[in-house]
Design brief:
The structure is a single chain. By secondary structure, the protein is mainly beta. Among the domains are: 30 residues, no CATH class; 141 residues, Jelly Rolls (Sandwich). Helices cover 10% and strands 35% of the residues. It is built from two helices and 23 strands. Strands 11, 13, 14, 16, 19 and 21 form a six-stranded antiparallel beta sheet that branches. Strands 12-15-20-17-18 form a five-stranded antiparallel beta sheet, with no helix packed on it.
C-alpha cells in the first residue's frame, strides 16, 4: 500500500506550458510553437491534389490546413483549405511589375471572359447587360430633367414625412388645386429592344373624385389611376423603342378637399432590357458617338471622327492616249491579224493549194 502512494500524488499533478520550443530553450512569448535551426527547414506534407475544388485525398480538412501540392496540372506549391477549396498560398509568378506598369512574364495569351484565348489578347462576353437610361430618386434636390405644368400648379421637390419613398426627397403635385390638374412630364428616347420602367407613387385625396393618373404618349395606362388614401406602392411596365412622353397627372375636382389633397412620386427608373453589354471600353478623352478607332504609323490607336479621316484617293481614269493603251491596242490588232492569217491558211489547206 505504501508503494502506491507516490502514484496517487503524481496523478494529481497538472503540467502547463505556455510555449513549446524545438531547437530553442527560449521560445518567443507570442508563439505557441517556435522551431529554431540554422541548417534545416520545416517540411510540410506533400500531397497530389487533382481537383482544387475537392478536399480529396485529404479527409474532412479543417479550414486553414496547409499542404504542398505536387500536382502539375493544378499548380505545384503551397495551398491551404479555405473551407470550400484549395487556394494557392503564394502569388502567381506569371505577372510582374516594372515601375507603374504590369506585364505578363510568359509567352502565352491573355484571356478575359475565356479560359482558352486564341490571340495575344482575347476578350469574350456574350452576357446580356443593362443600361440605366434613368434612375431618379430626386436625391439631387432638383426636378430636372422632368418638366411640370398644368392649371393646378407645378410639381415640386418634397421632403416631409411620407412625401418620399426612399432617401430624403421625392416629388409632389401642386397643392391647393381647385378644378384643375398638376402635370409632371418626362421625354425619353428608348433604344432598340425596348426598356422596362417603374416608379413608386402615393396618393392622399378625396376618394373617387381626385386622381393621380399615369399616361404614356397621352394614353392612360392600364391600372394607372389612383384615388383616395393610397400608401406608397410600385407601378411597372415596358416601353417600346423610340421617343415617348411619360406624364403623371394629379387631377382635382372643384369641390371637397380631403387629406393632403396631393400625389407623390419617387424612385423613377427606366432600364434598357435587351442592350448587350459591351466587352471593351476605350476611354482616352477623344471618344464619342459615331467615332472610329484608327491607328498611326506606330500602331498607336485613338478615336477619330469619320470626317477627319483622310479619304482614299480615287483611282485615276485611264488616259486613252497613254503608252499602255497604245501597247494594248497594238496587241489587239496583232491578235486580229494572226486570226485572219490563220483563217487564210486553213482555207488554202482545205483547197489543197498548199
Amino acid at each position: 500500500m505504501k508503494k502506491l502512494l507516490p502514484l496517487f500524488f503524481l496523478a494529481g499533478l497538472t503540467f502547463s506550458f505556455s510555449q513549446v520550443g524545438i531547437g530553442t530553450t527560449t521560445p518567443d512569448l507570442s508563439s505557441v510553437l517556435e522551431i529554431s535551426s540554422v541548417n534545416k527547414g520545416l517540411l510540410i506534407p506533400r500531397i497530389s491534389i487533382a481537383n482544387l475544388n475537392s478536399a480529396a485525398p485529404v479527409i474532412t480538412p479543417v479550414e486553414s490546413l496547409l499542404i504542398y501540392n505536387t500536382n502539375l496540372s493544378t499548380g505545384v506549391g503551397f495551398h491551404y483549405w479555405d473551407g470550400t477549396k484549395w487556394s494557392p498560398l503564394s502569388s502567381s509568378t506569371e505577372w510582374a511589375t516594372s515601375g507603374t506598369d504590369i506585364y505578363n512574364t510568359n509567352s502565352g495569351s491573355i484571356g478575359l471572359g475565356t479560359n482558352s484565348p486564341t490571340t495575344l489578347l482575347h476578350l469574350e462576353d456574350n452576357t446580356a447587360g443593362t443600361i440605366n437610361a434613368l434612375n431618379d430618386g430626386f436625391e439631387d434636390n432638383t426636378i430636372a430633367p422632368f418638366m411640370t405644368n398644368g392649371s393646378g400648379g407645378a410639381w415640386n421637390i418634397t421632403s416631409g414625412a411620407g412625401e418620399y419613398n426612399t432617401g430624403t426627397y421625392g416629388v409632389g403635385s401642386g397643392s391647393g388645386i381647385t378644378n384643375g390638374d398638376s402635370i409632371l412630364d418626362l421625354n425619353v428616347a428608348i433604344p432598340a429592344g425596348g426598356s422596362a420602367y417603374s416608379f413608386n407613387y402615393r396618393v392622399n385625396s378625396e376618394a373617387n373624385y381626385d386622381f393621380l393618373r399615369f399616361y404614356i404618349d397621352g394614353v392612360l395606362q392600364t391600372g394607372a389611376s389612383w384615388s383616395g388614401n393610397v400608401n406608397w406602392n410600385n407601378y411597372a411596365g415596358t416601353l417600346t423603342a423610340g421617343a415617348h412622353t411619360l406624364s403623371w397627372r394629379y387631377e382635382k375636382d372643384s369641390s371637397v378637399n380631403t387629406g393632403l389633397d396631393r400625389a407623390f412620386i419617387d424612385d423613377i427608373s427606366i432600364t434598357s432590357t435587351t442592350t448587350v453589354q459591351p466587352i471593351l471600353r476605350i476611354v482616352d478623352g477623344t471618344q464619342g458617338i459615331g467615332r472610329v478607332l484608327t491607328s498611326d504609323a506606330n500602331g498607336n490607336a485613338s478615336w477619330q471622327a469619320i470626317s477627319s479621316i483622310a479619304p482614299i484617293a480615287p483611282i485615276a481614269p485611264i488616259d486613252p492616249t497613254s503608252k499602255n493603251i497604245n501597247i494594248i491596242t497594238k496587241i489587239e490588232r496583232l491578235e486580229k491579224e494572226l486570226k485572219k492569217q490563220s483563217e487564210i491558211i486553213t482555207k488554202l489547206l482545205a483547197e489543197n493549194k498548199i
